[in-house]
Write a structure and sequence with these properties.
alpha+beta, Butyryl-CoA Dehydrogenase, subunit A, domain 2, Butyryl-CoA Dehydrogenase, subunit A, domain 3, 4-stranded antiparallel β-sheet, 10 strands, 16% strand, flavoprotein, flavin adenine dinucleotide binding
Length: 379
């Protein structure tokens, strides 16, 4: 996409799909802890899964800004559906970028049709942000690799067809592998009962002498950390987009409720304190949108500041999502505290955006490191 009008037309199409095909099921996904199958089917209407992949494997090669718009509009009505698509991209794009031709043919070409679900497996029981501390290992045995270990908090686990797994292949060497759901030695822990995004299954993924073919190594052996570091810059922007969508959805709900709710003979939207709160929410969301789109553009352009900008976007948009949903729920009064209104679900969904893909405390460290480095260069 090359101009503003094209992005806005694209946004309108995604919003229409979200409101017509995703929104009607959002409450049920949460209430029943049910995977968003209807949303996955709806994504095919605009080839949304294909958006993140290159044209030479059948994808649309959409830029990060277009991807962000999609996740923002889905997050506005259903955080679970937004997360589901984001994690499919997160799991499969490294295969598209670094995998061998046979692996791309095996995994990516079927995926662009929209029926393949994927997971990205990084975190382990003993740690999350310290990737070099991971203990899951892969050993070469003839023409195969054998994986042993356990991954934790894995989104789409039990439902995914493919699992992109970061493992140790040497004392100081990390590598990426693609594991299929039917590979021998792959199993799952119990499904977690979570505070929010309940329609998205989360569970441990366990590898016990899990044998996979040699060509399932993604890219070069020992390059896994570099691949994931690059990927995290991108996915943090996608999480920011999901969070911004949740915030926008919360503001939409607050506007609707305060316009309809009457006290003292007039809608409460006329009250100055209500208007002040709405103004603050709208301002924070618009500021977050500016940071988000700046970070997306930086990734697309390959700018040196992309990593810190991505962390800024993730930090600011997720904090905005949490603050906005809390304020929007407060404006609902007692009605916000019951599940009859979507704002209660939105507040629960917002919290995870401050935690996954690197907790916000880690994002602050990344940002500060870059700020100090630039100051030293300027001195």
């Amino acid at each position: 996409m090359s101009d503003h009008s094209a992005y806005e037309e694209f946004r309108s199409n995604v919003r229409r799909l979200a409101e017509q095909k995703v929104l009607p099921h959002a409450a049920a996904y949460d209430r029943d802890m049910r995977f968003p199958e209807e949303s996955l089917a709806a994504f095919k209407g605009l080839d949304l899964v294909a958006l993140a992949f290159r044209e030479n494997v059948g994808g649309q090669e959409g830029d990060v800004l277009a991807q962000s718009i999609v996740l923002e509009e889905l997050g506005r009505v259903c955080a679970t559906s937004s997360l589901t698509l984001m994690v499919i991209w997160a799991g499969l794009v490294p295969i598209d970028k670094y995998g061998s031709e046979p692996l791309r043919e095996e995994v990516i070409r079927p995926a662009v049709e929209g029926d393949v679900v994927a997971s990205i497996c990084l975190t382990e029981p003993a740690g999350g942000s310290d990737l070099f501390g991971l203990k899951t290992r892969a050993e070469r045995r003839g023409d195969e690799w054998v994986l042993n270990g356990q991954k934790r908090w894995i989104t789409n686990a039990t439902r995914s067809d493919w699992y992109t797994v970061l493992v140790r292949t040497g004392e100081k060497s990390l590598s990426l592998f693609a594991v299929h759901k039917d590979d021998p030695g792959l199993s799952f822990g119990r499904r977690e009962e979570k505070m929010g995004i309940k329609g998205s299954p989360t569970a441990d993924v366990v590898f016990e002498d899990c044998c996979i073919p040699g060509h399932r190594l993604i890219g070069e052996e020992g390059k896994g950390y570099a691949y994931i570091s690059e990927s995290l810059t991108w996915t943090r922007v996608l999480i920011a987009a999901q969070a911004l969508g949740i915030a926008q959805g919360a503001l939409d709900q607050a506007l609707k409720y305060t316009g309809e709710r009457h006290q003292f003979g007039e809608p409460i939207s006329r009250f100055q304190m209500i208007r002040g709160k709405i103004a603050d929410m709208a301002t924070q969301i618009e500021a977050g949108r500016s940071i988000l789109y700046r970070a997306a553009s930086a990734i697309d352009a390959g700018e040196a500041d992309a990593r810190s900008l991505a962390s800024m976007a993730k930090l600011f948009c997720s904090d905005t999502a949490m603050a906005t949903t809390i304020d929007a729920l407060q404006l609902h009064g007692g009605s916000g505290y019951v599940s009859d209104f979507p704002i209660e679900r939105m507040m629960r969904d917002a919290k995870i955006t401050q935690i996954y893909e690197g907790v916000n405390e880690i994002q602050r460290l990344i940002i500060a490191k870059q700020v100090y480095a630039k100051a030293e260069q300027a001195a």
